[in-house]
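Kindly inspect the following:
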Amino acid sequence: MRHLMQAYPLTVAGGGFCLLLAGLMVTIGFFKTLLILILTLLGGAIGWYADRSGLATTIRRKLS
């Protein structure tokens, strides 16, 4: 198993992600899963923007 994870890390990660996604769809439904994915991507985009623009550093300096 370790050999597979070292040889194909993105394949294993993609399979794990799809397994998680399938579990969410079965337990909470399609639209709630879609909402979770959209909000996660939005949060990631906001965090990426804050890191790239220096906004996070500016806020940390002002708070300390």
About this structure: The chain has a mean pLDDT of 90. Residues 5 and 13 are 9 Å apart (CA to CA).
